[in-house]
Amino acid sequence: MTGRLRRPGAAAAPAPAPERAGKPGAQAARAGNPAALSRPAGQRPIVPSATVTARALIAVIAIMTFLAGITIGAVSAVSNVAAEWTADIARETTIEIRPGDGLDVEAALAKAVEVAKATPGVADARALDPAATARLLEPWLGTGLDLANLPVPRLVAVSLAATADAGTLEALRAGLTLQVPSASLDDHRLWAERLSTTAHTAMAIGLAVLALVAAATVLCVTVATRAAVDAARFVVEVLHFVGARDTFIVSEFQRHFLAVGLKGAAIGGGAAIALFFLGSTLPSWLSFDRQIDTLVGALTIDLRGYGGIVGVAVLVALVTALTSRATVYRTLRGIS
Amino acid sequence: MVRFENVGLRYGMGPEVLRDVTFGIPPHSFQFLTGPSGAGKTTLLRLLFLSLRPTRGLITIFGRDAAKLAPDETAALRQRIGIVFQDFRLLDHLSTYENVALPLRVQGREEATYRAEVTELLHWVGLGERMHVLPPVLSGGEKQRAAIARALISRPEILLADEPTGNVDPSLARRLLRLFLELHKSGTSVLIATHDIGLMDQFDARRLVINQGRLTVYD
Ligand SMILES: Nc1ncnc2c1ncn2[C@@H]1O[C@H](COP(=O)(O)OP(=O)(O)OP(=O)(O)O)[C@@H](O)[C@H]1O
Ligand SMILES: [Mg+2]
After folding, report:
1. What's the pTM value of the predicted model, to 2 decimals?
2. B10 by DSSP, 3-state: which?
């Protein structure tokens, strides 16, 4: 078949050439884009990328990835804070000595400190002096108080070592009952339980919101991708009709939409990461006082949180690529 | 090259658009396909182009039973058939050059291997100066010629053209007809669907006439 279709030379050509008559440069001017002339021909991607739907798709992907990233970060931050709270509570406990008839409070305090320090798992024990106790009560009783005249309980602050467990508190309680009858151990059990319930509830709510946001993200991205592919249905048809194999068409679209997905996900995920990164470093840059530091500290997330955001971004890009693939196949089945 | 035997076609549950159509397209032939609007000319071209399956009958294309083709074989056969659609179907985001080169590009060929060929063909159809322009700024006749060039670039053995003169003035229509005849002389089988009597009167060729679903051949 080669050479069968011999094209006649220009002189013999009956071809219409109305605009050929010496108008050099006219075409560049009419194209309105001189760069189009210098660009190596045939390099433009087959799948159109500058369409309104394509831009909308990038925006949808970026926004949804951002929201999912924020949610992951927030859940991760909540879980960190909850873990910290519970750990703080568990690491501290107090011994209370109630003044009673003829009780030598100071001796009882000293004894309690001694018992506590002797208990394995206790890192430190320290009696709060009357002044410190008074400071604690200031908000309620005002300044200039003589504690000696009031039956105010005195406290021993006990810090537990990292090795402490439930047995440590039991041993401490037993030792106190035996040697300092006037002492009672406040292990914050109720408070700790309530706090841990709160932390668990917060985590459960966070995970539920995360699940909803993840579902919404996947749905939005799927629907938007499908719409974008449907908008390019004409391109699929033309490629099909000029003899492209299905695998060629599908891989062109999949490559294009993977790039779109990665771009959108990088924008959204990057913004979420930047937000958390700023949240965790800004306070120290601006040397805010500790109050604000702890407030904004809630925004701090760890590597796992950053990993989660990157993970969701990758997931979104994959969903985009796979949806485009499935939609192109469906379109092709509809054509023939 | 192509053989239709007792082919019938209906869209969905509708009436039969084509009934007992039997004809063939011999190699190196030139024919007009005509008939009133809505007679089924485009439908017949779609059958020829493998983008529609017949409800009845047998279609053989290049010796292959059209009903028994795998998708990839269909794509391969399509590369041997050039088609000019009634509505051109150019891609607006690609330049004229890129549109014309598309059939070669989708075969996975490197741009360097076909650049000269595409440029030459574009000059031949008189679009040499409009090569890097996007289709939306082309005139109707220029689009028509770009669509024809795209159908020709992979040197098809059969060229199908649906109303190729539907959008152009009589003088351009004459020039396009000369282009098709030139192609026919170089060995391609050409089938032009048209209801332009003036066009058919300019060249005495085989006529396939569809009327009320039946096809009659006037040699
Ligand atoms: N996709 C379709 N679904 C249902 N009916 C269709 C479809 N395409 C065409 N038809 C019907 O089939 C008949 C033949 O249509 P076709 O387009 O083949 O005619 P035509 O000869 O090309 O007409 P024209 O000269 O106006 O282009 C018409 O009655 C049309 O309504
Ligand atoms: Mg038609």
Report:
1. 0.75
2. strand
ipTM > 0.85 (yes/no): yes
Burial of A11 (0-12, 13-18, 19+ CB in 10 A): exposed
- Mark yes or no for CB contact A4/B187 under 8 Å: yes
A172 Cα: distance to centroid of ligand 2 (angstroms) = 96
Nearest CA to ligand 1 atom 30: B38
For A15, the closest of B89, B124, B186 (CB atoms) is B124
Residues of A in contact with B73 (CB under 8 A): none
State the CB neighbour count (10 A cutoff) for residue B64: 15
Question: Under an 8 A CB cutoff, do A336 and B188 touch?
Answer: no
Question: Does ligand 1 have an atom closer than 6 angstroms to the CB of B42?
Answer: yes
Whether the CB of B125 sits within 6 Å of ligand 1: no
Residue A127 alpha carbon to ligand 1 centre in Å: 98
- Mutation site, B80, B91, B177, interface A, largest A CB count within 10 A: B91
Tens of pLDDT, residue by residue, chain A (336 residues) = 333 444 443 333 444 444 333 333 333 333 344 444 444 444 688 898 877 888 899 999 999 999 999 999 888 888 877 777 766 666 778 888 888 777 788 888 888 888 888 888 888 888 888 777 777 777 777 676 666 667 778 888 888 887 777 678 888 888 888 888 888 887 666 776 777 788 788 888 888 999 999 999 999 999 999 999 998 999 999 999 998 999 999 999 999 999 999 999 999 999 999 988 887 777 666 665 555 445 445 557 788 889 999 999 999 999 999 999 999 999 998 886
Chain A: residue nearest B184 by CA?
A5
Q: Which domains does chain B have, with CATH numbers?
A: 2-218 (3.40.50.300)
